[in-house]
Structure formats: structure tokens, C-alpha cells
Design brief:
Blueprint (H helix, E strand, L loop, with lengths): L23 H14 L7 E7 L5 E12 L2 E7 L3 H8 L2 E6 L6 E11 L2 H10 L2 H9 L9 H14 L11 E15 L7 E8 L2 E7 L2
Antiparallel strand pairs: 1-2, 1-4, 2-3, 3-6, 4-5, 5-6, 6-7, 7-8
The structure holds flavin mononucleotide (FMN).
Protein name: Pyridoxamine 5'-phosphate oxidase
Family: Belongs to the pyridoxamine 5'-phosphate oxidase family.
Pfam family, one: PNP_phzG_C
Length: 211
């Protein structure tokens, strides 16, 4: 299938140096809020790239659950493939594909496990079904059938029939502490605007990159 005629001209909305906040997390918050206001489906869905011990990269989607000046936090199974990669190499990359806004944000940084207390705070805010689901899935391992998962769910439901569902020791959050963050805004004639923030000696430096 030839897709060479799939071509869109981008608007001249532009991104100007003087409009950027000195702190990329503040800039990210602005863009995130605009994505929410536009009604984007799952604006907090992001691609997470990890690298295994042999240097092979792998991407998957995860949901950003909160962010602040310390970084971006997502939740997962600590025994999953992504968690194994992070244990071998904590350098990761995140990508927010806000294509409908003619935008993308790319983050490079280090992934760090958050504390169990911080994970618990989020875990208790989840619906009970999601809490039980965390117990059921031995994420990224091979399973012979879906039936097995449903059996396990029934067992877990019985086990935790009364009271609160405890936080599994194998489940929690990672914080991606950003080292670089790039904001990309599509422009006419493929002359897009790109601004690259890099953390250097206790401060953020900003450079414009050629599209
Ligand atoms: C929209 C969307 C959101 C997802 N959110 C998460 C998430 O927040 N955490 C998670 O562990 N997996 C999430 N997943 C599933 C992951 O993409 C992936 O299949 C899973 O984490 C296993 O990845 P791994 O085997 O590389 O560790 C999501 C998938 C999609 C499509």
C-alpha cells in the first residue's frame, strides 16, 4: 500500500521562544491543559521507551497519572518486562503524540521507583476492580488462556472479599525524572518549531532545533 499521497499541511499556529516558560514542566502543564480542553481521547496516554540489557529498544503505551516539577509518574507491575528493562537501564524516553494538535512532546530521563507509601496513595484511589486486576496479572509472562486469568480473578475476589484490597508488593509507580524535554509544533512548509530544554548545572537551558 502506497501512502505517499497521505500529506497534511500544518497550520501556522507556531511556537515562539518568548512564549515558552523557563521551566519545561510548566510549559508541559500548559500544553497538557490545552490537550484536555480540546477533548483529546486519553491525553495522558504516552509511549514509554525502554532499552534491554543488549541495547534493544522497546515501546509501549502507559498512562501518565500525575506530574510536577519532579517528573512524570506512571504505574505498572514491578515484574513486567518494562520494569526488568528499567532495572537493567534506568534511561527511558516518553512521547506524547498529540498529533491532532500538531504537537509532540519528547522526554528523556531516568526512571526511579517511587516509595511504597506514594504507590499506596494512588492504589487506594483506584476502583476496586482495578485494584484486584493488579493482583491477578503477572504482567508480561506467558499464559495459556484467558480462562486462567478469570479463574485467578475469582480466587483473588474471594481472598479479599472483606475489607480493603492491599497494595501488591510487585506493583507500583515509576517517576521519570526529566533530563531533556522537547516541544514540537508543526508549521507550514515543514518548517516546524522545536524547542529543546536540557537540565545543565542546576538549571534548564533552552535551544531551538532545526526541524
Ligand atoms: C491506552 C493504553 C494505556 C495503558 N496504560 C498502561 C499503564 O498505565 N500501565 C501499564 O503497566 N500498562 C499500560 N498499558 C499496557 C502496556 O502498553 C503494556 O502492554 C503492558 O504494560 C506490558 O508492557 P511490558 O510487557 O513491556 O512491560 C496501556 C496500554 C494502552 C493501549
Amino acid at each position: 500500500m502506497d501512502l505517499s499521497e497521505f500529506r497534511k499541511e500544518y497550520s501556522d499556529r507556531g511556537l515562539h521562544r518568548e512564549d515558552l516558560d523557563a521551566n519545561p514542566m510548566v510549559q508541559f502543564e500548559r500544553w497538557f491543559q490545552q490537550a484536555v480542553e480540546l477533548g483529546l481521547h486519553e491525553p495522558n496516554a504516552m509511549s514509554l521507551a525502554t532499552v534491554d540489557a543488549t541495547g534493544r529498544p522497546l515501546l509501549r503505551t502507559v498512562l501518565l497519572k500525575y506530574f510536577d516539577t519532579n517528573g512524570f509518574v506512571f504505574f505498572t507491575n514491578y515484574q513486567s518486562r518494562k520494569a526488568r528493562h528499567i532495572a537493567e537501564n534506568p534511561q527511558v524516553s516518553l512521547l506524547f503524540p498529540w498529533v491532532i494538535l500538531e504537537r509532540q512532546v519528547i522526554v528523556q530521563g531516568r526512571a526511579e521507583k517511587i516509595s511504597a507509601a506514594e504507590s499506596l496513595k494512588y492504589f487506594t484511589s483506584r476502583p476496586r476492580e482495578s485494584q484486584l486486576g493488579a493482583w491477578v496479572s503477572d504482567q508480561s509472562s506467558v499464559i495459556s488462556s484467558r480462562k486462567l486469568l478469570l479463574q485467578k480473578l475469582a480466587e483473588i475476589k474471594q481472598k479479599f472479599a472483606h475489607g480493603e484490597v492491599p497494595l501488591p508488593s510487585f506493583w507500583g509507580g515509576f517517576r521519570v525524572v526529566p533530563e531533556t524535554i522537547e516541544f514540537w509544533q508543526g508549521g507550514p512548509a515543514r518548517l516546524h518549531d522545536r524547542f529543546f530544554y536540557e537540565w545543565k548545572d542546576a538549571g534548564w537551558e533552552i535551544e531551538r532545533l532545526s526541524p
